[in-house]
Specification:
There is one protein chain. This protein has two domains: about 10-235, P-loop containing nucleotide triphosphate hydrolases (Rossmann fold, 3-Layer(aba) Sandwich); about 240-355, OB fold (Dihydrolipoamide Acetyltransferase, E2P) (Beta Barrel). The protein has helices at about 45-55, 95-105, 110-125, 140-155, 170-190, 200-205, 225-230, 235-240; strands spanning about 10-20, 20-30, 35-40, 60-65, 70, 80-85, 160-165, 190-195, 210-215, 215-220, 245-255, 255-260, 265-270, 280-285, 290, 300-310, 315-320, 325-330, 340-345, 350-355. It is an alpha+beta fold. Strand 16 and strand 17 (about 315-320) form a beta hairpin. The strands form four sheets. It has a six-stranded mixed beta sheet with strand order 6-7-8-3-9-10, sandwiched between helices. A five-stranded antiparallel beta sheet has the order 13-12-11-14-20, with no helix packed on it. Helix 2 (about 95-105) crosses helix 3 (about 110-125), helix 2 (about 95-105) runs parallel beside helix 4 and helix 3 crosses helix 4. The chain binds adenosine-5'-triphosphate. The site of adenosine-5'-triphosphate has 12 residues, from strand 2 and helix 1.
Protein backbone atom coordinates (compact mmCIF):
# COMPACT_ATOMS: atom_id res chain seq x y z
CA UNK A 1 0.00 0.00 0.00
CA UNK A 2 1.34 3.41 -0.90
CA UNK A 3 1.93 5.63 2.10
CA UNK A 4 2.14 9.38 1.68
CA UNK A 5 4.06 9.58 4.95
CA UNK A 6 7.77 10.22 5.04
CA UNK A 7 10.01 7.24 5.78
CA UNK A 8 10.75 6.47 9.44
CA UNK A 9 14.48 6.03 8.86
CA UNK A 10 16.65 6.74 5.86
CA UNK A 11 20.30 5.89 5.33
CA UNK A 12 22.03 7.51 2.39
CA UNK A 13 25.40 6.15 1.30
CA UNK A 14 26.72 5.79 4.80
CA UNK A 15 30.20 4.57 5.56
CA UNK A 16 31.44 3.71 9.04
CA UNK A 17 35.07 3.09 9.98
CA UNK A 18 36.86 2.04 13.12
CA UNK A 19 40.28 3.58 12.66
CA UNK A 20 41.49 2.38 9.28
CA UNK A 21 39.02 -0.49 9.10
CA UNK A 22 35.82 0.19 7.15
CA UNK A 23 33.04 -1.79 8.82
CA UNK A 24 30.15 -0.54 6.63
CA UNK A 25 30.46 0.57 3.02
CA UNK A 26 28.00 2.61 0.94
CA UNK A 27 24.93 1.56 2.90
CA UNK A 28 21.60 2.96 1.69
CA UNK A 29 18.19 1.92 2.99
CA UNK A 30 14.75 3.47 3.34
CA UNK A 31 12.55 2.12 6.13
CA UNK A 32 8.83 2.86 5.98
CA UNK A 33 6.91 3.81 9.09
CA UNK A 34 5.44 0.88 10.94
CA UNK A 35 7.53 -1.74 9.16
CA UNK A 36 9.69 -4.47 10.62
CA UNK A 37 13.09 -4.56 8.93
CA UNK A 38 15.82 -7.07 9.73
CA UNK A 39 19.54 -6.71 9.18
CA UNK A 40 20.75 -10.26 8.62
CA UNK A 41 24.27 -11.51 8.10
CA UNK A 42 27.18 -13.43 9.57
CA UNK A 43 29.16 -12.29 12.57
CA UNK A 44 31.22 -9.19 11.82
CA UNK A 45 29.27 -8.07 8.72
CA UNK A 46 28.42 -4.70 10.27
CA UNK A 47 24.81 -5.17 11.46
CA UNK A 48 25.35 -3.92 14.99
CA UNK A 49 27.46 -1.03 13.73
CA UNK A 50 24.53 0.18 11.62
CA UNK A 51 22.08 -0.17 14.49
CA UNK A 52 24.39 1.73 16.82
CA UNK A 53 24.79 4.51 14.27
CA UNK A 54 21.02 5.19 14.40
CA UNK A 55 21.21 5.62 18.15
CA UNK A 56 24.29 7.80 17.83
CA UNK A 57 26.51 5.28 19.61
CA UNK A 58 28.96 5.21 16.70
CA UNK A 59 29.80 8.05 14.35
CA UNK A 60 29.38 7.73 10.62
CA UNK A 61 32.39 8.66 8.45
CA UNK A 62 30.26 9.82 5.51
CA UNK A 63 26.67 9.82 4.26
CA UNK A 64 23.46 10.79 6.03
CA UNK A 65 20.99 9.22 8.44
CA UNK A 66 17.53 10.73 8.87
CA UNK A 67 14.82 9.82 11.35
CA UNK A 68 11.36 11.10 10.41
CA UNK A 69 13.02 13.21 7.70
CA UNK A 70 15.31 14.98 10.17
CA UNK A 71 19.05 14.46 9.80
CA UNK A 72 20.30 12.97 13.03
CA UNK A 73 23.85 14.29 12.80
CA UNK A 74 22.65 17.43 14.56
CA UNK A 75 20.58 15.67 17.19
CA UNK A 76 22.43 14.62 20.36
CA UNK A 77 21.99 11.02 21.50
CA UNK A 78 19.75 11.89 24.44
CA UNK A 79 17.35 13.73 22.19
CA UNK A 80 16.97 10.92 19.65
CA UNK A 81 13.66 9.29 20.42
CA UNK A 82 14.80 5.67 20.15
CA UNK A 83 13.94 2.48 22.05
CA UNK A 84 16.69 -0.09 22.46
CA UNK A 85 16.62 -3.78 23.34
CA UNK A 86 19.86 -5.73 23.55
CA UNK A 87 20.77 -9.39 23.77
CA UNK A 88 21.66 -9.19 27.46
CA UNK A 89 18.50 -7.58 28.88
CA UNK A 90 20.50 -4.72 30.48
CA UNK A 91 17.85 -4.13 33.14
CA UNK A 92 18.91 -2.25 36.26
CA UNK A 93 19.34 -5.18 38.66
CA UNK A 94 18.51 -3.28 41.87
CA UNK A 95 15.48 -1.48 40.51
CA UNK A 96 12.12 -3.24 40.44
CA UNK A 97 10.14 -3.79 37.23
CA UNK A 98 8.17 -0.55 37.67
CA UNK A 99 11.29 1.58 38.02
CA UNK A 100 12.99 -0.21 35.14
CA UNK A 101 10.07 0.37 32.79
CA UNK A 102 9.40 3.90 34.08
CA UNK A 103 13.00 4.98 33.48
CA UNK A 104 12.50 6.61 30.07
CA UNK A 105 9.33 8.36 31.24
CA UNK A 106 10.90 9.82 34.40
CA UNK A 107 13.78 10.98 32.28
CA UNK A 108 11.29 12.80 30.06
CA UNK A 109 9.54 14.42 33.05
CA UNK A 110 6.21 12.69 32.45
CA UNK A 111 3.79 13.31 35.38
CA UNK A 112 3.62 10.54 38.02
CA UNK A 113 0.02 9.44 37.38
CA UNK A 114 0.70 9.20 33.65
CA UNK A 115 3.83 7.14 34.35
CA UNK A 116 1.82 4.66 36.42
CA UNK A 117 -0.79 4.37 33.67
CA UNK A 118 1.73 3.92 30.88
CA UNK A 119 3.90 1.42 32.75
CA UNK A 120 0.75 -0.62 33.51
CA UNK A 121 -0.22 -0.56 29.84
CA UNK A 122 3.27 -1.54 28.65
CA UNK A 123 3.36 -4.46 31.11
CA UNK A 124 -0.02 -5.64 29.84
CA UNK A 125 1.29 -5.46 26.32
CA UNK A 126 4.24 -7.73 27.12
CA UNK A 127 1.88 -10.03 29.07
CA UNK A 128 3.40 -9.38 32.50
CA UNK A 129 0.69 -7.29 34.13
CA UNK A 130 1.03 -6.79 37.87
CA UNK A 131 4.77 -7.51 37.94
CA UNK A 132 5.68 -3.93 38.97
CA UNK A 133 7.22 -4.85 42.33
CA UNK A 134 9.38 -7.76 41.18
CA UNK A 135 13.16 -7.53 40.82
CA UNK A 136 14.83 -8.69 37.56
CA UNK A 137 16.47 -11.56 39.48
CA UNK A 138 13.00 -12.94 40.25
CA UNK A 139 12.18 -13.26 36.53
CA UNK A 140 13.15 -15.81 33.88
CA UNK A 141 15.33 -14.80 30.92
CA UNK A 142 12.29 -14.53 28.65
CA UNK A 143 10.40 -12.43 31.21
CA UNK A 144 13.39 -10.12 31.65
CA UNK A 145 13.49 -9.65 27.91
CA UNK A 146 9.78 -8.78 27.93
CA UNK A 147 10.50 -6.13 30.58
CA UNK A 148 13.34 -4.77 28.46
CA UNK A 149 10.85 -4.56 25.58
CA UNK A 150 8.26 -2.78 27.78
CA UNK A 151 10.95 -0.31 28.85
CA UNK A 152 11.86 0.36 25.21
CA UNK A 153 8.29 0.95 23.95
CA UNK A 154 6.75 2.73 26.96
CA UNK A 155 7.76 6.22 25.82
CA UNK A 156 6.50 5.58 22.28
CA UNK A 157 9.83 5.97 20.51
CA UNK A 158 10.08 6.84 16.85
CA UNK A 159 12.08 3.68 16.18
CA UNK A 160 12.65 0.47 18.13
CA UNK A 161 16.12 -1.06 17.74
CA UNK A 162 16.47 -4.73 18.62
CA UNK A 163 19.99 -6.17 18.68
CA UNK A 164 19.84 -9.98 18.77
CA UNK A 165 17.26 -9.80 21.58
CA UNK A 166 16.48 -13.52 21.43
CA UNK A 167 19.92 -15.08 21.26
CA UNK A 168 20.32 -15.56 25.02
CA UNK A 169 17.04 -17.49 25.26
CA UNK A 170 16.53 -21.24 24.86
CA UNK A 171 15.04 -22.55 21.63
CA UNK A 172 11.39 -22.83 22.77
CA UNK A 173 11.39 -19.45 24.43
CA UNK A 174 12.97 -17.96 21.33
CA UNK A 175 10.13 -19.14 19.13
CA UNK A 176 7.49 -17.80 21.52
CA UNK A 177 9.24 -14.46 21.75
CA UNK A 178 9.46 -14.19 17.94
CA UNK A 179 5.69 -14.33 17.74
CA UNK A 180 5.31 -12.06 20.76
CA UNK A 181 7.63 -9.31 19.50
CA UNK A 182 6.05 -9.36 16.07
CA UNK A 183 2.56 -9.08 17.61
CA UNK A 184 3.53 -6.15 19.82
CA UNK A 185 5.20 -4.40 16.90
CA UNK A 186 2.04 -4.74 14.80
CA UNK A 187 -0.24 -3.64 17.65
CA UNK A 188 1.80 -0.54 18.44
CA UNK A 189 2.57 0.23 14.78
CA UNK A 190 6.13 1.03 15.84
CA UNK A 191 8.94 0.96 13.27
CA UNK A 192 11.34 -1.82 14.26
CA UNK A 193 14.89 -2.56 13.13
CA UNK A 194 16.03 -5.97 14.18
CA UNK A 195 19.54 -7.42 14.01
CA UNK A 196 20.15 -11.14 13.84
CA UNK A 197 22.37 -13.78 12.27
CA UNK A 198 19.53 -16.31 12.51
CA UNK A 199 17.84 -16.77 9.14
CA UNK A 200 14.70 -18.36 10.60
CA UNK A 201 14.16 -15.39 12.86
CA UNK A 202 14.61 -13.07 9.91
CA UNK A 203 12.29 -15.03 7.60
CA UNK A 204 9.54 -15.43 10.17
CA UNK A 205 9.44 -11.90 11.59
CA UNK A 206 10.35 -9.39 8.91
CA UNK A 207 8.48 -7.29 6.38
CA UNK A 208 11.82 -6.77 4.68
CA UNK A 209 15.26 -8.32 5.11
CA UNK A 210 18.58 -6.64 4.40
CA UNK A 211 21.15 -9.37 3.81
CA UNK A 212 24.68 -8.16 4.56
CA UNK A 213 28.13 -9.55 4.02
CA UNK A 214 31.46 -7.99 4.93
CA UNK A 215 30.10 -4.46 5.35
CA UNK A 216 28.02 -4.38 2.16
CA UNK A 217 24.40 -5.08 1.29
CA UNK A 218 23.93 -8.23 -0.78
CA UNK A 219 20.15 -7.95 -1.17
CA UNK A 220 17.12 -6.12 0.21
CA UNK A 221 13.73 -7.77 -0.18
CA UNK A 222 10.74 -9.44 1.40
CA UNK A 223 11.40 -12.83 3.04
CA UNK A 224 9.90 -14.52 -0.04
CA UNK A 225 12.11 -12.55 -2.42
CA UNK A 226 15.39 -13.18 -0.64
CA UNK A 227 14.59 -16.86 -0.18
CA UNK A 228 13.15 -17.67 -3.61
CA UNK A 229 15.06 -15.14 -5.72
CA UNK A 230 18.46 -14.80 -4.04
CA UNK A 231 20.47 -12.01 -5.69
CA UNK A 232 23.80 -13.74 -5.08
CA UNK A 233 25.30 -17.09 -4.19
CA UNK A 234 26.02 -15.70 -0.73
CA UNK A 235 22.32 -14.96 -0.12
CA UNK A 236 21.30 -18.37 -1.46
CA UNK A 237 23.67 -20.08 0.96
CA UNK A 238 23.08 -17.88 3.94
CA UNK A 239 19.28 -18.14 3.83
CA UNK A 240 18.76 -21.82 4.35
CA UNK A 241 20.27 -24.61 2.39
CA UNK A 242 20.64 -24.34 -1.34
CA UNK A 243 21.77 -26.87 -3.93
CA UNK A 244 24.35 -25.13 -6.11
CA UNK A 245 25.26 -26.95 -9.31
CA UNK A 246 27.79 -25.37 -11.63
CA UNK A 247 27.89 -26.04 -15.35
CA UNK A 248 28.04 -24.65 -18.87
CA UNK A 249 25.17 -23.61 -21.14
CA UNK A 250 24.89 -25.81 -24.24
CA UNK A 251 21.57 -24.77 -25.81
CA UNK A 252 19.18 -21.87 -25.27
CA UNK A 253 15.61 -22.17 -26.49
CA UNK A 254 12.24 -20.69 -25.52
CA UNK A 255 13.51 -19.04 -22.36
CA UNK A 256 15.17 -22.20 -21.14
CA UNK A 257 18.84 -23.00 -20.95
CA UNK A 258 20.18 -26.50 -21.24
CA UNK A 259 23.14 -26.82 -18.93
CA UNK A 260 25.82 -29.50 -18.90
CA UNK A 261 26.65 -29.80 -15.21
CA UNK A 262 30.28 -30.24 -14.12
CA UNK A 263 29.20 -33.53 -12.52
CA UNK A 264 28.27 -34.91 -15.93
CA UNK A 265 24.47 -34.77 -15.99
CA UNK A 266 22.33 -32.31 -17.95
CA UNK A 267 19.53 -30.09 -16.64
CA UNK A 268 17.27 -27.37 -17.98
CA UNK A 269 16.51 -24.13 -16.19
CA UNK A 270 14.37 -21.11 -17.00
CA UNK A 271 16.52 -18.06 -17.75
CA UNK A 272 15.05 -14.56 -17.62
CA UNK A 273 17.53 -13.54 -20.31
CA UNK A 274 18.94 -15.38 -23.34
CA UNK A 275 22.29 -17.03 -22.58
CA UNK A 276 25.00 -18.10 -24.98
CA UNK A 277 26.50 -21.55 -25.38
CA UNK A 278 29.63 -21.87 -23.20
CA UNK A 279 28.31 -19.32 -20.63
CA UNK A 280 29.26 -20.55 -17.18
CA UNK A 281 26.37 -20.65 -14.73
CA UNK A 282 25.38 -22.02 -11.36
CA UNK A 283 21.94 -23.59 -10.98
CA UNK A 284 20.48 -22.88 -7.53
CA UNK A 285 17.64 -25.14 -6.39
CA UNK A 286 16.09 -25.11 -2.93
CA UNK A 287 15.72 -28.53 -1.26
CA UNK A 288 11.92 -28.03 -1.18
CA UNK A 289 11.86 -27.80 -4.99
CA UNK A 290 13.37 -31.25 -5.45
CA UNK A 291 10.97 -34.14 -5.99
CA UNK A 292 11.78 -37.83 -5.62
CA UNK A 293 10.31 -40.59 -7.76
CA UNK A 294 8.48 -40.59 -11.08
CA UNK A 295 6.92 -37.13 -11.32
CA UNK A 296 6.93 -36.58 -15.06
CA UNK A 297 8.89 -33.39 -14.42
CA UNK A 298 11.91 -32.26 -16.37
CA UNK A 299 15.41 -32.54 -15.01
CA UNK A 300 15.48 -36.15 -13.98
CA UNK A 301 18.70 -37.14 -12.29
CA UNK A 302 19.50 -40.48 -10.77
CA UNK A 303 21.27 -40.80 -7.48
CA UNK A 304 21.79 -42.80 -4.32
CA UNK A 305 20.56 -41.80 -0.88
CA UNK A 306 23.48 -41.03 1.42
CA UNK A 307 21.58 -39.97 4.51
CA UNK A 308 18.05 -39.51 5.76
CA UNK A 309 16.79 -37.17 8.48
CA UNK A 310 13.25 -37.64 9.68
CA UNK A 311 11.70 -34.33 10.74
CA UNK A 312 8.12 -35.27 11.54
CA UNK A 313 5.90 -34.26 8.60
CA UNK A 314 8.84 -34.22 6.22
CA UNK A 315 12.28 -35.70 5.66
CA UNK A 316 15.57 -34.36 4.41
CA UNK A 317 17.64 -36.64 2.17
CA UNK A 318 21.18 -36.19 0.95
CA UNK A 319 21.46 -37.78 -2.46
CA UNK A 320 24.68 -38.49 -4.31
CA UNK A 321 24.18 -37.76 -8.01
CA UNK A 322 27.78 -38.76 -8.88
CA UNK A 323 30.20 -36.07 -7.83
CA UNK A 324 27.67 -33.77 -6.17
CA UNK A 325 25.32 -34.16 -3.24
CA UNK A 326 21.77 -32.90 -3.60
CA UNK A 327 19.68 -32.08 -0.60
CA UNK A 328 15.95 -32.76 -0.90
CA UNK A 329 13.29 -31.77 1.61
CA UNK A 330 10.28 -33.98 0.94
CA UNK A 331 6.93 -33.91 2.68
CA UNK A 332 6.08 -37.41 3.82
CA UNK A 333 2.87 -39.14 3.02
CA UNK A 334 4.34 -42.57 2.41
CA UNK A 335 7.21 -44.17 4.28
CA UNK A 336 10.73 -42.95 4.78
CA UNK A 337 13.24 -43.92 2.09
CA UNK A 338 16.31 -45.89 3.13
CA UNK A 339 19.99 -45.09 2.88
CA UNK A 340 21.71 -46.59 -0.17
CA UNK A 341 18.44 -46.74 -2.08
CA UNK A 342 18.74 -45.65 -5.72
CA UNK A 343 16.25 -42.94 -6.58
CA UNK A 344 15.29 -40.63 -9.40
CA UNK A 345 15.05 -36.98 -8.49
CA UNK A 346 13.68 -34.09 -10.51
CA UNK A 347 12.91 -30.40 -10.35
CA UNK A 348 10.90 -28.02 -12.46
CA UNK A 349 13.06 -25.77 -14.69
CA UNK A 350 11.16 -22.76 -13.32
CA UNK A 351 12.02 -23.76 -9.75
CA UNK A 352 15.70 -22.95 -10.23
CA UNK A 353 17.58 -19.64 -10.12
CA UNK A 354 20.60 -19.08 -12.37
CA UNK A 355 23.72 -17.27 -11.22
CA UNK A 356 26.38 -15.98 -13.58
CA UNK A 357 30.09 -16.68 -13.34
CA UNK A 358 30.48 -14.03 -10.63
CA UNK A 359 27.77 -15.59 -8.48
CA UNK A 360 25.18 -12.91 -9.29
CA UNK A 361 21.60 -13.81 -10.26
CA UNK A 362 20.86 -13.50 -13.95
CA UNK A 363 18.06 -10.98 -14.35
CA UNK A 364 16.15 -9.78 -17.44
P1 LIG B 1 28.00 -9.80 15.40
O1 LIG B 1 26.83 -10.56 14.90
O2 LIG B 1 29.18 -10.67 15.74
O3 LIG B 1 27.68 -8.79 16.46
P2 LIG B 1 27.98 -7.67 13.44
O4 LIG B 1 27.56 -8.00 12.07
O5 LIG B 1 26.99 -6.99 14.30
O6 LIG B 1 28.55 -8.96 14.14
P3 LIG B 1 29.68 -5.43 14.00
O7 LIG B 1 29.66 -5.61 15.48
O8 LIG B 1 28.89 -4.34 13.42
O9 LIG B 1 29.28 -6.79 13.28
O10 LIG B 1 31.19 -5.30 13.54
C1 LIG B 1 31.57 -5.08 12.19
C2 LIG B 1 33.07 -5.11 12.09
O11 LIG B 1 33.64 -4.00 12.78
C3 LIG B 1 33.71 -6.35 12.68
O12 LIG B 1 34.77 -6.74 11.85
C4 LIG B 1 34.24 -5.87 14.03
O13 LIG B 1 35.39 -6.59 14.38
C5 LIG B 1 34.56 -4.42 13.76
N1 LIG B 1 34.34 -3.58 14.97
C6 LIG B 1 33.19 -3.46 15.67
N2 LIG B 1 33.34 -2.60 16.71
C7 LIG B 1 34.63 -2.16 16.66
C8 LIG B 1 35.39 -1.24 17.45
N3 LIG B 1 34.86 -0.61 18.50
N4 LIG B 1 36.67 -1.05 17.09
C9 LIG B 1 37.22 -1.68 16.02
N5 LIG B 1 36.55 -2.55 15.23
C10 LIG B 1 35.27 -2.79 15.54
Amino acid sequence: MHSPESPAVEFRNIEISYGRFTAVKDFSLTIQKGSFVTLLGPSGCGKTTILRSIAGLVDISSGQISIASKRVDDIPIYKRNIGLVFQNYALFPHKNVFDNVAFGLKYRNVPKAEIVRRVGKALEMVRLPGSEKKLPSQLSGGQQQRIALARAIVFEPEVLLLDEPLSALDANMREDMRVEIKKIQKETGITAIFVTHDQEEALSMSDRIVVMNAGVVEQIGTPGEVYDQPATGFVANFLGKANMLSGVVTIMDEGRATIALDVGQTVRAASPRPLKPKDKVTVVVRPQKIAIGATGADNRLSGRILSTSYLGGNAVYEIDIGGAVIRANISLDGGLLREDETVEISFDPSGAVLLNERGIRIVP
